[in-house]
Amino acid sequence: MGNDEEIPDIDLKKTVKEGQQEMMDERMVQIQNNMSKIKHKLVVISGKGGVGKTTVAVNLAISLASVGLRVGILDVDITGPNVSKMLGISTEVRPRVDPDAKRFYPVVGPLSIKVMSMSFLMQDSDTPVIWRGPMKMGAVRQFLGDAHWGELDYLICDLPPGTSDETLDILQLIPDENVIVVSTPQEVALMDARKTIAMSKTMERKVLGIIENMSGFKCPHCSEYIDLYPPGGAEKASQDFNIELLGKIPFETEVSVQGDQGLPFVLKYPESESTQAFKDIVKKIRELVE
Which end of the chain is more exposed for a tag (fewer CB within 10 A), N or C? Predict the structure, then answer.
């Protein structure tokens, strides 16, 4: 090369950005192809923790599978995964990996439900996941794109509380999802639930409806029905945002007990009021999406 021949300038930032965009486009195609085999994607979300969102997601999955549907559940709570515990699946179980295809297979749980959770990838249940947003989002994209979900009737995504990283990523990556918002009648919980509904609508996602969990308590001694919080909040939210009130699940102490023991409530107590509420909710969901 002669001394007077100019070396062309290379815009490194542009080159890196273009490379990243190409990788992102490939990942998006992979996720879309994977998700196209799943008929219905239900995203279970709440604005606030402690409202029983994972309990609802797990029992919805069991209720759908119990009528012969092919169901998967994805635990999107990267730093606080609890789905495996509530389904009674040991965290020592590991997803089967296909190194040639660079894919892995979700763990098979009760009623042949396919389950994927960060808990299957940790050393033990006491090991924390100390990750920032980009790493968590990378895991979510692997769960969506690299997991061999196969053909399913329903994939239920159990999201962490709030409206940040994992929630935004799921809402962006699965455009044909149906959002289900879970709240308790408590005013503070409903305030956050309303924000979650507004966020989903802002992102132009279909909000299927709201479920009111811990909706009152039936005294085991006198059978009197007691409102634990002032009633009517979920109805008002459904009216204000023009969405369905999918149902109300009463407070029953056995629900939390069974969650801790790893046996979904709807299997242990098939004749209970809560189980009947789940059945009614599933029926309404199927009417809305099928």
Answer: N
Return the ∠ at Cα 207 (arms to 75 and 203), rounded to 5°: 85
The answer to whether 103 and 147 are in contact (CB under 8 A) is yes
Provide the β-strand partners of residue 196: none
Burial class of residue 13 (count of CB atoms within 10 Å of its CB; 0-12, 13-18, 19+) = exposed
Residue 182 near residue 56, CB atoms below 8 Å? yes
| Distance (Å, whole) CA 98 – CA 146 | 10
Give the Cα separation of 208 and 239 in Å (integer): 13
**Residue of 254, 247, 253, 257 lying closest to 278 (CA atoms):** 247
What does the alpha-carbon distance between residue 169 and residue 138 come to, in Å, rounded to a whole number? 10
What are the sequence ranges of the domains in the chain? 27-289
pLDDT of residue 183: 93
Give, as one character, the DSSP assignment of residue 20: H
Tens digits of per-residue pLDDT, 184-225?
A: 888 888 899 999 999 999 999 999 999 999 888 877 778 788
CA angle 10, 11, 16 (to 5 degrees): 115
Nearest alpha carbon to residue 106 among 142, 130, 68: 142
220 DSSP 8-state letter: T
Alpha-carbon span 68 to 75, nearest angstrom: 22
Q: Which amino acid is at 34?
A: N
Architecture of domain 27-289: 3-Layer(aba) Sandwich (3.40)
**Letter for the amino acid at 198?**
A
pLDDT at 4: 55
Neighbours of 81 (CB within 10 A): 23
Eight-state DSSP code of residue 147: B
* Distance linking the first and last C-alpha atoms of the chain: 67
Cα 174 to chain centroid distance, Å, stands at: 12
